[in-house]
Amino acid sequence: MPLEIITIPCLTDNYAFLLHAPGSGLTALVDAPEAAPIKAELEKRGWTLDFILITHHHWDHVDAVEELRDAYDATVIGAQADEHRLPALDVKVKDGTTFSLSREDVHVLDVSGHTIGHIAYYLPGSKSIFTADSLMALGCGRLFEGTPEQMHASLTKLAALPANTIVYSGHEYTQSNGQFALTVDPENEALHARVKAVDEARNRGEPTVPSKLSEELQTNPYLRAHTKGVQQAVGMEGADPVDVFTEVRRRKDSF
Known about the structure:
The protein has helices at 35-45, 59-62, 65-72, 148-159, 174-184, 189-203, 213-219, 228-233, 241-253, and strands spanning 4-10, 14-20, 27-30, 51-53, 75-79, 91-93, 98-101, 104-110, 119-123, 128-132, 135-136, 139-140, 166-169, 211-212. With 255 residues, it is of the alpha/beta class.
């Protein structure tokens, strides 16, 4: 039975996610930006917290780890490569590690770029991936530590997952990402339709995360650096997709 996944808005534009196994009652959390809304959701549902899965070291993804660990005696899982700047890890993982949450396999993917040591958690049984600030809805994370080559490689890895995978990313940035995407993929009809739908959802106060990987493949410019439309829009037709990606990311940084 697939895990039940709950999206929790935190801070001003962050998301955390609860993964709950209805049969065993096991519950895991992906990232811990803020304790209060996570505790409130657990209390409302009568759940405890067994595991905390960390994607990367930025404060707005780990700030509540210690409070939640203390409150629930939760086991904390994170990247071995990043352990020197993460809260204390009970379980250290790396690219290629597989572990189980109530009989469902969780595959760890290195998706460095936004930071070095950033990881994603892929659950094929639930057709879900938790990407935090690597692949985002209509975007990708700013390259604070990694190179364009690293981020492009990470996004290429994620793009190769089944198209029906649901992408749980870390922030509500979709509306601004969409406005930028239109400047580098202006002839993309699917993008225009998605931006309209995103605007309507935000006007209703609805989240735009998670998204479908199939949507990202059709509309996310960072996954489309190989396409003629994006290459023409940035004046780089026929160029290496890594170079096109680099230019698209550079433009977003000053958008």
